[in-house]
Amino acid sequence: MAVVIAREVRDGESVGVGVNSPIPAAGALLARHLHAPRAALRLRGVDDAVPFVGSKEFFDFAQRGRLDLFFLSGIQIDARGASTSSARPDAAFPALSARPSSIPS
């Protein structure tokens, strides 16, 4: 999986990787090592990555189109492949519907 992800990263792209996404993180780092040395990684715990304050800032970057690639964790994707991070959960996910959405729908 990390190799497949690495192939998607192009040199010079801005790449965001969630904190709990070790396989996408490995793929982004592999890409930068092999063929994309100017990829700007937003990835916690990496010395030469672009710093970010927290998850709100991270999602704001994605929503404003300031990331070329954004890797989410599995909990942020529903059974249909849609992002649950940008829409209010529906009745299919009653456990999540008690939490307010970060983005108004």
What does this structure look like?
- This protein has 105 residues and is an alpha/beta fold.
- The protein folds into 2 domains: 2-71; 79-105, no CATH class.
- It has helices at 2-8, 22-34, 55-63; strands at residues 14-17, 40-42, 69-71.
- The longest helix has 13 residues, at 22-34.
- The protein is built from 3 helices and 3 strands, in the order αβαβαβ.
- The chain is globular.
Give me some keywords for this one.
single chain; 105 residues; alpha/beta; 2 domains; 3-stranded parallel sheet; 28% helix; globular; disordered C terminus
Number of extended strands? 3
- Secondary-structure-based class equals alpha/beta
Q: How do the helices and strands follow one another from N- to C-terminus?
A: HEHEHE
Low-confidence stretches: 93-105
The number of helical runs is 3
| Radius of gyration from CA coordinates | 15 Å
Q: Structurally, how many domains make up the residues? A: 2
Q: Strand sequence of the main sheet, in spatial order?
A: 2-1-3
| Main sheet record | 3 strands, parallel
Classify the helix fraction into a percent range: 25-40%
- The portion of residues forming beta strands comes to 5-15%
Mean pLDDT: 76
- Principal-axis shape equals globular
* Termini gap: 33 Å
